[in-house]
Amino acid sequence: MKCYIVSVNYSDYLSLTLPYNKHHFDEIIVVTSTTDERTFDIVEENKCTLYPTDKFYSGGAYFNKWGALQEALDCFG
Q1: Would you tell me how many other CB atoms lie within 10 Å of the CB of residue 56?
Q2: Do the Cβ atoms of 55 and 32 come closer than 8 Å?
């Protein structure tokens, strides 16, 4: 079973929760912005899949969580 996590600039929480929850899923895909480098490191440390995207802010959006998540879902099917 796949799990999608949206985490943009919440790497502090992700660093605490990801290690304790990753064993519940076959694959975890973390969706974040292309500038959230700390999240990149946490995902790599935990051997999960990273999907960085600029969709969160495209078209002048304040924060388009669902657009970014849909983009990731389309990518990973």
Answers
A1: 22
A2: no
Burial of 47 (0-12, 13-18, 19+ CB in 10 A): exposed
CB–CB of 54/60 below 8 Å? no
CA 71 to chain centroid, in Å, comes to 12
Name the DSSP letter for residue 64. Answer: -
pLDDT digits (tens, 9 = 90+) for 4-22: 999 999 999 999 999 999 9
pTM over 0.90: yes
Provide the strand spans (E) within 1-77. 2-6, 27-33, 49-53
- Are 35 and 15 in contact by the 8 Å Cβ rule? The answer is no
